[in-house]
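Lecture 7 notes: from sequence to structure.

We start with a single chain of 133 residues. Read the sequence below before looking at the structure.
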Amino acid sequence: MEDVIASVGFFLAAVAIVLIIVTASVVNRFNMHETVREALRQGKTLDAEAIKALGAPRRKPRNNDLKAGLILIAVAAGLVALGALVGTALPDEPDVPPMMNMMAGVAAIPAFIGLVLTGFGVVNALRPPKQED
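Now the structure, written as tokens:
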């Protein structure tokens, strides 16, 4: 019973952390909008610099996909290396596949996602930048 409580508690803690971060972001954005509304009620004008200073969300850099893809490929390579190292420490058993093969199978998931994101990043890098209004 204690194992189940500990496992559920771990996942509930992860959910609680995500909820706290999302709630803080929503409250921050609400406060920014309230400040802008109050300034407009008082007849003040807000330029782009003033809104940036209030903490308006910034646009993501163009190379985000490329960076995330390369990180996922590195994670996949790390998982394969972990399988190789653990596989050398474990004795070979006839009915159990080698640890290297199992970890390579697990590593395939982030590797394929990383390859797709890297492809998106390369395509975006080769595309001419959009003209800002």
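The mean pLDDT is 84. Keep this in mind for problem set 3.
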